[in-house]
Amino acid sequence: MKLSKIFLALGYAVVTAFAFVIALSFGAPPAVAAPESANDVVDQVQKYYTTINQVTATFKQTVHNAQFGTDKTSTGTVWIKKPGKMRWDYVEKKNNADRLKKAFISNGTTLFDVEPDNQQVIKKNLQNNVMPVAVTFLYGKGDLKKDFNAQLDTSSGYGQKGDFVLKLTPKQPSAQYKTLYLVIDSKDFHAKESIVVDSSNNVNHFQFFGVDSAKPINDNSFEFDQRSVPNYQMIDADSPSSIKSATP
After folding, report:
1. C or N: which end of the chain has fewer Cβ atoms within 10 Å?
2. Whether pLDDT at 11 is above 60
C-alpha cells in the first residue's frame, strides 16, 4: 500500500497541519526585526522550529466537506517529541466521561492507527518510505521555502487584526493539500491556527490550546502494544494483501 494512501486513510491532514504549527507555539524568542515579506515570516517560523524538542497541546479540528457543505468537529490531545515521535488521541464524551474515539501513534519508525469502534489497528512501517515535506519538517528536516511558494494573505478571512496569515502553495502538485494557511501571532510568531485546503476544496482547520513545551513526555506514550487489544484485527499496511487491496 502506497504511503500516500496510508496517510489519507489515517487522517493525513492531521499530520500535515500539525507538522507546520504545533511546535511553533512556544514562549516568545528574542526580539527580531519586523518581517517585511512572507519569506521573512517563514524564516522566523523555521527558526522557532529548530529550538523545539517536545510539546503537548489540546486541539480542536473542524473538517469541512465541500461536496456536501457539512462540518465535523473533533477534539483531543496531541503529544510530539523529536525525533519523529507523535501521538494524537481523539476523544468524545459518552456517559459524562471521555472516551477514546481513535488514536494515531508513532514511535518514529512505525505508525499505528487505533480504531476502537472498528476494533482494528492499521500498522505502517515508516522506515523505508519517502516522507512528504509536511512530515519531514516535523522531524527537523525539509525546507518550506524550497517546497512551497509563500505569500502574506489578506483575503482569506483567517486570523485577527495584527496577525500574519501565511499562504503556502506547494511547488509540486499534491492530492493531500492544495493550500496551507498558518495564522501567526505578530508579537512572538507562534502559530495560532492552521488550515489545510485539499485538491477537492475540503478544509481541515486546526486550533491549538494550552501548548506546553516544558512538561516531560515519557517515550512509552509513543509505543503501542498489540497485546493490549487481543480482540482487535491487526492490519499490516505493508503486507502483499494490503498492497493488492489498495490497487485501483
Report:
1. C
2. no
